[in-house]
């Protein structure tokens, strides 16, 4: 959108949190903003990089309040960046900001994309989503459990690679176990899977395992999980490191 009146909100995807993963557009927008708004954890990630900015933050479950705070600051003529992890449009703040925009017709909005965990996590594991894939959140905070189960069922029946967000929380200690039980109805227990914790941050780690092993992994909200399709395989490189690879099909087609 064109900035007609100086009242503007940028919705900025930060990627996984490490500045190296941020786009040049995101860095430019944050540097030019008067105020940065976001979930407190993500605000703390950018504070050291932009110490001269004003910051506003809220805790979890206060997303609408956070959006209205951003709009109110923008209506004062300030340039506002609403930050979120990953990509702003993938489980991010782009949708609630745009849904509320009708209440603030004088405020322009621009979405600044970032690297979603499905992409940054996949790069660490190797190439787990090199073919058709689905991304599903296991959080039932906004989506009923029966809908989550239906999506898991259809994705596995379609032989899609699957990335799982929010696999476990303090309240949902068994959600990954339940998801694996659904997947095991349609997928082989030997299906190649993997997970990544703290993508791009201190404590980053990953593991490649089978679907039957994944069910017993101790994960948390800082993990992104990848379920392979029927062709996904584990590859051991020359340095003995493991990678998760879903073939695109070039080798079969061109015999390379």
Write the topology of this structure.
Layout: E1 8-13, H1 24-32, E2 35-39, H2 40-46, E3 54-58, H3 63-75, E4 79-84, H4 94-100, E5 108-112, H5 117-125, E6 126-127, E7 133-137, H6 145-157, E8 161-165, H7 175-183, E9 192-197, E10 205-210, H8 211-214, E11 223-227, E12 233-236, E13 242-245, H9 250-254
Parallel strand pairs: 1-4, 1-5, 2-3, 2-4, 6-13, 7-8
Antiparallel strand pairs: 8-11, 9-10, 9-11, 12-13
What does the model show?
By secondary structure, the protein is of the alpha/beta class. It has 9 helices and 13 strands. It has helices spanning 24-32, 40-46, 63-75, 94-100, 117-125, 145-157, 175-183, 211-214, 250-254, and strands at 8-13, 35-39, 54-58, 79-84, 108-112, 126-127, 133-137, 161-165, 192-197, 205-210, 223-227, 233-236, 242-245. The strands form 3 sheets. It has a 5-stranded parallel beta sheet, sandwiched between helices. Strands 7-8-11-9-10 form a 5-stranded mixed beta sheet, sandwiched between helices. The longest helix has 13 residues, at 63-75. The protein is elongated. The N and C termini lie far apart (46 Å).
Major beta sheet, strand line-up: 3-2-4-1-5
SS summary, helix count: 9
Number of strands: 13
Low-pLDDT segments, ≥5 res: none
* Biggest beta-sheet profile: 5 strands, parallel
Share in helix: 25-40%
Mean pLDDT: 94
Distance between the termini: 46 Å
Question: What would you call the shape?
Answer: elongated
This entry's quaternary arrangement is single chain
SSE ordering: EHEHEHEHEHEEHEHEEHEEEH
Strand content: 25-35%
Radius of gyration: 20 Å
Q: Helix/strand/pairing class, anyone?
A: alpha/beta
């Amino acid at each position: 959108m064109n900035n007609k009146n100086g009242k503007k909100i940028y919705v900025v995807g930060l990627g996984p949190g490490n500045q190296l993963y941020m786009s040049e557009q995101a860095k430019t927008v944050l540097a030019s903003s008067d105020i940065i708004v976001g979930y407190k954890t993500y605000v703390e990630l950018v504070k050291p990089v932009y110490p001269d900015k004003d910051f506003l933050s809220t805790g979890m479950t206060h997303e609408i309040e956070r959006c209205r705070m951003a709009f109110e600051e923008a209506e004062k003529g300030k340039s506002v960046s609403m930050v979120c992890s990953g990509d702003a449009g993938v489980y991010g703040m782009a949708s609630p900001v745009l849904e509320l925009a009708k209440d603030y017709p004088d405020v322009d909005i621009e979405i600044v994309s970032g690297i979603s965990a499905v992409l940054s996590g996949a790069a660490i594991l190797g190439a787990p989503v090199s073919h058709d894939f689905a991304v599903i959140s296991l959080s039932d905070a906004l989506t009923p459990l029966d809908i989550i189960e239906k999506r898991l069922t259809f994705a596995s029946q379609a032989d899609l690679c699957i990335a799982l967000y929010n696999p476990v929380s303090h309240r949902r200690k068994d959600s990954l176990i339940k998801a694996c039980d659904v997947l095991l109805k349609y997928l082989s227990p030997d299906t190649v899977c993997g997970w990544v914790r703290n993508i791009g941050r201190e404590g980053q780690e990953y593991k490649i395992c089978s679907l039957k092993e994944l069910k017993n992994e101790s994960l948390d909200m800082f993990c992104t999980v990848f379920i392979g399709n029927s062709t996904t395989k584990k590859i051991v490189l020359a340095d003995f490191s493991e990678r998760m690879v879903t073939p695109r099909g070039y080798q079969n087609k061109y015999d390379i």
